[in-house]
Amino acid sequence: MIRVEQAGHWFRPEQWLFRDLSFAVAEGEATAILGPNGCGKTTLLRALADTLALKQGRINVDGIVGVVPQALRGDVGYRVIDMVLLGRSRYLGRFGAPGRRDLSRAEACLDAVGIADLAERRYDRLSGGQRQLVLFARALAGDCRVLLLDEPASALDLANQGVVLRLIRRLVRDDGMTVVFTTHHPDHALAVADKVLMMAGEPVFGPADRVLDEANLARLYGVPVRRVTIEADGERIEATVPVHRLTGFDAPPPRL
Ligand SMILES: Nc1ncnc2c1ncn2[C@@H]1O[C@H](COP(=O)(O)OP(=O)(O)OP(=O)(O)O)[C@@H](O)[C@H]1O
């Protein structure tokens, strides 16, 4: 369970990124946070992860927390399997070396995100998308009950976006994990989130299907957005299509 009460934060005095923000995420539920660039999604996620002290309000998170950041600072020259084993650190003694069980857990987590074949590669020589999957595996290796993910699919190709979405859904539905993720993809929120928090102007929080309607999405991004339902192999998939107008700008035409 996550409870956020009257949360608020600024980096420049009194220029509030968000304030008076209250919402709750029940155990075994997924919540997506959407909002325009710079509105404070990562900042809120850092506060949930207890790596940032808010200027206002209270946050309570029950259970072991795993965090999947967008990227790590600096180049980390570890092998991928050692990066994932870092996720086991809370189970090792102060100078304890990982044991057989830790290794098999780390291997299973790499397998879960579909990159078992990268185990011996150096983390700093991976692509951005591959690194994102390693950080997901590292969080899972910590046997967390609450998973906080910052734009978990932002660097991923379409197939790997599917891997991550299916994994999030399985972790929530089958394992009862509590998940909060930020995203710029309303489709991803519709696919796996029970609830949505929209951070722009007056925040909106509620069931994903209801919050992500055409009017709210257009208000959020300042772009008209259509909701469509697609039938695929007997499954109904809710999708969103932004209606970008590509004419009427002053920009010169591209030189071909
Ligand atoms: N440590 C910091 N010091 C000063 N300003 C910061 C700091 N961290 C973030 N900011 C500023 O706070 C604002 C919100 O940043 P944040 O990363 O939370 O936005 P976001 O909604 O996650 O954006 P995006 O969608 O682009 O990832 C930005 O204007 C950013 O420059």
TrEMBL record:
GO biological process, one term: zinc ion transport
Top-level taxonomic group: Bacteria
Keywords for this protein: ATP-binding, Ion transport, Nucleotide-binding, Transport, Zinc, Zinc transport
Domain ABC transporter: 2-226
Pfam families assigned to the protein according to its UniProt record, in alphabetical order: ABC_tran
Gene3D superfamilies assigned: P-loop containing nucleotide triphosphate hydrolases
Gene Ontology molecular function: ATP binding; ATP hydrolysis activity
Membership in a protein family: Belongs to the ABC transporter superfamily.
Function: Involved in beta-(1-->2)glucan export. Transmembrane domains (TMD) form a pore in the inner membrane and the ATP-binding domain (NBD) is responsible for energy generation.
Protein name listed in UniProt: ABC transporter ATP-binding protein
Species name: Rhodopseudomonas palustris (strain ATCC BAA-98 / CGA009)
Lineage: Bacteria, Pseudomonadati, Pseudomonadota, Alphaproteobacteria, Hyphomicrobiales
